């Protein structure tokens, strides 16, 4: 195969999206639409990629990988005009140029590979990626004479007869670089919209005696593009089906794929059960034989084998083997949870380590802390890590027992094997194998309650 470059069209505002955000940066499956197109192009073997930016150009540029070329289209005068801005990118190149659109995130590397193969095998100067739609409204029509591609007509400019054609233009092409250069220099804006259409290059190339062709994708989902938030949701549903099907084929058990929202960068080990309503975002790795209970949310985190998570939120953290999380637990960023740990209901952990065998069964806050092996944190334990200006760290060493409703005021260390009595507020280090009691001594005033009752009766 010849060397291939890619030009991705990503300059449009997308007014039907009714959004200030550039259309191509709207997300599907936890990833910007443009990112999918870039990834598919790279996977299909593109040697170099340029992205045409326009609306909020700086925002789109900032979202691009550093190895890509960004080319600004200052005026949006049509697709032909957009590709013309990229002429310096390929004008001295002798190979293929893929022209793709940044709002078609379902395009796959296999489809692009087949497009390039059809282009080279057919000896074409241009090859159009096409599909057959039951309802082609809004799409450019593929006009053929027999199997020969004659021209592409935009829906707005098509006759009634041409609008009856079901085969449509995806807006994606493979060109011979030098043929594309010649055709772009000959396009004009003689149409209803007064724009420079890339589709016109097909007729121009035919007029030059060049051979042009088409490759109809067998999966029409490949070319589905987004022009509104309704379409964004529809494509999100297709992407969700693809992601979940791939994970199930790899061994995961997804109870209700239609209502499970896993990011494209999620990996799930075999025999892990994922219940409805689970959401993952970013890069998430879940091991084997886990249970991810309904309505749990996991973001940029790693979950090892055998973990049970119930109705909990985990952000930018690590959970080791055979640990139980939840229900209603909250692991905030930079939490590292060891093996056989229990993080129970309404427990919050932030920027902390809980080592193997540690337990916080309920109603506990662990912030900026290191909790040792086999430590038991009683109900209502609070790591008081913030003095209003600075945050400090607390260490509870191995095999300690912290009684209910205790406050550990940072910075403080509870040494190995120690006990903290329930209701204590610990402000000083606790030595090894010590019982720390930091609460007022109980005083019982017998008969006092009867006196109070009499006072209340008189006051009435």
From TrEMBL:
Mg(2+) binds at residues 103, 227. Residues 230-250 are annotated as: Linker. One of its GO terms (biological process) is peptidoglycan biosynthetic process. GO terms for cellular component: cytoplasm; membrane. Its EC number is 2.7.7.23, 2.3.1.157. The keyword Transferase applies. GO terms for molecular function: glucosamine-1-phosphate N-acetyltransferase activity; magnesium ion binding; UDP-N-acetylglucosamine diphosphorylase activity. It holds the Pfam family NTP_transf_3. Residues 1-229 are annotated as: Pyrophosphorylase. UDP-N-acetyl-alpha-D-glucosamine binds at residues 9-12, 23, 73, 78-79, 140, 154, 169, 227, 332, 350, 365, 376. Signal peptide: none annotated. Residues 251-460 are annotated as: N-acetyltransferase. Gene3D superfamilies: Hexapeptide repeat proteins, Spore Coat Polysaccharide Biosynthesis Protein SpsA, Chain A. Binds 1 Mg(2+) ion per subunit. Acetyl-CoA binds at residues 385-386, 422, 439. The active site is at 362 (proton acceptor). Its cofactor is Mg(2+). Residues 7-131 form the MobA-like NTP transferase domain. It catalyses: alpha-D-glucosamine 1-phosphate + acetyl-CoA = N-acetyl-alpha-D-glucosamine 1-phosphate + CoA + H(+); N-acetyl-alpha-D-glucosamine 1-phosphate + UTP + H(+) = UDP-N-acetyl-alpha-D-glucosamine + diphosphate. Coiled coil: none annotated. It is an enzyme of class 2 (transferase). HAMAP family: GlmU. In the C-terminal section; belongs to the transferase hexapeptide repeat family. Catalyzes the last two sequential reactions in the de novo biosynthetic pathway for UDP-N-acetylglucosamine (UDP-GlcNAc). The C-terminal domain catalyzes the transfer of acetyl group from acetyl coenzyme A to glucosamine-1-phosphate (GlcN-1-P) to produce N-acetylglucosamine-1-phosphate (GlcNAc-1-P), which is converted into UDP-GlcNAc by the transfer of uridine 5-monophosphate (from uridine 5-triphosphate), a reaction catalyzed by the N-terminal domain. This is Bifunctional protein GlmU.
